[in-house]
């Protein structure tokens, strides 16, 4: 049994890499506190402390630890430069009928779609694969899929902002390094080298990618290529998201995630965050090389307006400077900013609670999907 993703030379030439904060969030939820990576276990522990119980319960019902399927609407196909606020808006705006369809796929007692049933060995096998409706999701789903999407978006946004955002610059560095490594391998050894260590239960035949599963099907609409998405929280076989007509997405574990556990995770662990707040401490740490507001927005997941506001405070405090080159303004740490950012990693816990890190972010995919 396998899913077969047809990928001819033209489609392969249009394939590309992308990153997704939502994929990182779903990896934390999927593994809970049993994740093999220390940084992901810490993120889940933080989520348990920071999220309202009803939000965490809803997310864990949508992304079960004991089932392979999570609804696609939680992780929209990544777009270049998209902030977490924009991702959340797309999640919240998912049509109710699309959410209902994705819940139908994996929840017992809901509608059975013939084309989904046809992917399985038998009706009995499909029914065994489905799972009961969990309680927190049942309460929200009583009002239909149109109620589930915005509730899930708000919960994912809260989790990202309170748990992952302080570490996002470091996570982006790991993801960018993974993509750079694979681009170098492709240049040196050819396109097939990309698949060498993406993950188990997947093979490349020269014309299609074969992903071993408990059901079978063909993904034949990858004319515009495939998006390869590394994630520091992914565990196990390569996952796929494939819903016609959207570009298919393959999610795999990023290389080099050990670097995320080399020191206490998050800017809030430093004395600097107690002085200037988590958001500004994170931006100061991210400015180890000069960057524009847009660069920092992409790396942190915060909106450009949020980044610009906090950079203005750092500028007035003399911790950063700015320089214009053509139409682009780049920010860089001053000597004082560098001294604070580099020394704070060795300091003890903050003497005062961290200041709020800017406005809350409002906020499709971790696991296998169907056509």
UniProtKB/TrEMBL annotation:
SUPFAM superfamilies for this protein: Winged helix' DNA-binding domain
Transmembrane segments: none
Record Pfam families: HTH_20 (PF12840)
InterPro entries, per the entry: ArsR-like_HTH, Metal_resp_trans_reg, WH-like_DNA-bd_sf, WH_DNA-bd_sf
Superkingdom: Bacteria
Region (Disordered): 340-371
Gene3D superfamilies membership: Winged helix-like DNA-binding domain superfamily/Winged helix DNA-binding domain
Name of the protein: Helix-turn-helix domain-containing protein
Organism, scientific name: Streptomyces roseolus
């Amino acid at each position: 049994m396998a899913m077969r993703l047809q990928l001819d030379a033209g489609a392969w030439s249009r394939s590309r890499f992308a990153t997704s904060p939502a994929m990182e969030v779903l990896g934390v939820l999927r593994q809970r506190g049993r994740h093999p990576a220390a940084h992901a276990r810490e993120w889940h522990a933080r989520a348990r402390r920071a999220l309202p119980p009803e939000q965490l319960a809803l997310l864990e019902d949508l992304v079960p630890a004991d089932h392979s399927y999570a609804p696609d609407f939680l992780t929209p196909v990544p777009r270049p430069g998209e902030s977490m606020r924009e991702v959340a808006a797309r999640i919240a705006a998912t049509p109710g009928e699309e959410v209902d369809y994705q819940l139908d796929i994996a929840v017992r007692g809901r509608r059975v779609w013939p084309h989904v049933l046809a992917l399985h060995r038998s009706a009995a096998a499909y029914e065994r694969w489905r799972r009961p409706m969990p309680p927190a999701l049942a309460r929200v789903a009583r009002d239909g899929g149109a109620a589930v999407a915005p509730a899930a978006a708000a919960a994912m946004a809260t989790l990202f902002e309170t748990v992952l955002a302080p570490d996002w610059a470091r996570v982006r560095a790991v993801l960018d390094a993974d993509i750079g490594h694979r681009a170098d391998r492709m240049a040196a050894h050819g396109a097939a080298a990309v698949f060498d260590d993406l993950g188990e239960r997947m093979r490349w035949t020269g014309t299609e990618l074969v992903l071993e599963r408990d059901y079978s099907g063909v993904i034949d609409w990858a004319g515009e290529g495939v998006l390869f998405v590394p994630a520091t929280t992914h565990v196990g076989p390569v996952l796929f998201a494939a819903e016609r007509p959207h570009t298919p997405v393959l999610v795999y574990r990023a290389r080099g995630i050990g670097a995320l556990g080399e020191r206490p995770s998050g800017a809030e662990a430093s004395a600097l965050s107690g002085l200037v707040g988590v958001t500004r401490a994170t931006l100061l740490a991210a400015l180890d090389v000069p960057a524009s507001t847009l660069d920092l927005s992409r790396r942190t997941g915060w909106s450009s307006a949020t980044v610009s506001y906090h950079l203005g405070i750092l500028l007035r405090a003399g911790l950063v400077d700015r320089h214009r080159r053509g139409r682009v303004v780049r920010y860089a740490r001053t000597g004082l900013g560098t001294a604070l950012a580099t020394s704070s990693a060795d300091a003890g816990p903050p003497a005062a609670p961290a200041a709020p890190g800017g406005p809350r972010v409002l906020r499709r995919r971790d696991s296998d999907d169907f056509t």
